[in-house]
Amino acid sequence: MKRPKILVILGATATGKSDFAVKIAKRLNGEIISADSRQVYKGLDLGTGKITKKEMRGVPHWLLDVARPRLKFSVAQYKLLADKKIVEIIKRKKLPIIVGGTGLYIKAIVDNINFPEVKPNLKLRKKLAKYSAQKLFNIIKKLDPARAKTVESKNPRRLIRAIEIAKVLGRVPKLKSKPQYDAIQIGLILPDEELKKKIYKRLIERIKQGMIAEAKRSHNNGLSFRRMEELGLEYKYLALYLKKKITKKEMIEQLYKAIWDYVRRQKVWFKKDKRITWINPHKKLNLTF
């Protein structure tokens, strides 16, 4: 049976994925499914760089604002919702376009990964959170040498989850199954200096638009500082600023550095997938379906 086609537009933060995807969607009669692990949360708009209604230009966007920020939203939950939306879009005889920079979300769809149902162990996570990435890596290496070969060795969050699963199941099971879709993956890439300028400019613009006020409002509505720090990047440093632990200048400097570090990790993740075709978003793309 012929697998349905999907288009994936991916890349690091600030490479222009949202705008590029809207243009492609209008050309190819597509609908967009977000693949961003923080844009799923309601009310976290400026802090996550969420696309606005005006910027959508009439193109339907899905999997934005589907979860409450106080609760954790897993990749397994994302895959369930994304697969459902893909089926709905295909039924409408439109092209599903997956757009985002969360590598694990994209991999879950493209490779049809089935995630083990192991509930979070908060006590264990609290203990492991105190360890360095190297120490966490050494733990998973002893528990599950096979998983140690594939896990991101410098990503504490991924390492902690791998340890959590291995302690319950004895090992992290193989996740892949037969792909459901015929996926074409387009990666957007910009020179580092241009990307750094874009990141800084976008950060300052979002602060001017009210990113700090948005964070304060979210906290007043029940989003704890601890949870904000768990959400990472913008929300981590906004929480530190609101708690008066850092100045506004320090917040901007530290956040800019953290975003760039995240971009580097995104690049490492996507570089592993040789199926991705990389292009500069400023150049015209000849793409037909």
Describe the structure.
The chain is of the alpha/beta class and 289 residues long. It folds into three domains: 5-115 and 177-190 and 270-279, Rossmann fold, CATH 3.40.50; 122-169; 192-267, Helix Hairpins, CATH 1.10.287.890. It is 51% helix and 10% strand. It contains 13 helices and six strands. The chain has helices at residues 17-28, 53-56, 75-91, 103-110, 122-128, 133-143, 145-148, 156-169, 192-209, 211-220, 225-231, 233-242, 248-271; strands at 5-11, 30-34, 61-62, 95-100, 182-188, 277-279. A six-stranded parallel beta sheet has the order 3-2-4-1-5-6, sandwiched between helices. Strand 2 (30-34), helix 2 (53-56) and strand 3 (61-62) form a beta-alpha-beta unit. Helix 3 (75-91) packs across helix 4 and helix 11 runs antiparallel to helix 12. The two termini are 18 Å apart. The mean pLDDT is 94.
